[in-house]
Amino acid sequence: MRVPIRHGLDKAEVRRRLHSRSHEIANFIPGGVADVTTTWPNEDVMTLSVGAMGQKIDGRVLVEEGQVVFEVDLPPMLSFVEPMISKAIKSEGQKLLADHSDS
After folding, report:
1. Which InterPro entries match (predicted)?
2. Which of 43-46's residues contact partners 24+ apart within 8 Å by CB, and which partners?
């Protein structure tokens, strides 16, 4: 599953915001009991490992000019929740990229 999120930021600022807020990705998962691990194999790719409800899901966030792309390796048995996950990624992904300097 691929979920692109458009932005008007430069790549360095996107990376900075993702680095500082990656702990918030657990909030994407309903129920609030997700275990999320992130790594940065290179400056434009953040890998994700999400454990929730007895399932483990891997994915990546690709930092591109004008957009970030969340790629989620959703197992076939969970394909029925893809629309819900896609909607959550779009909503929460925008929050990860938002300017929080005023808060």
Report:
1. PHA_gran_rgn
2. 43/15, 44/11, 44/15, 46/18, 46/22
Task: Return the CATH number of the domain spanning residue range 2-97.
Answer: 3.30.310
- Name the residue ranges covered by the structural domains of the chain: 2-97
Residue 80, CA distances (Å) to 35, 84, 88 in order = 21, 9, 14
Q: How far apart are CA 70 and CA 59, in angstroms?
A: 7
Residue with tokens 């599953």: 1
Q: How far apart are CA 90 and CA 3, in angstroms?
A: 7
How confident is the model over 38-83, as pLDDT tens digits? 999 999 999 999 887 777 889 999 999 999 999 999 888 888 888 9
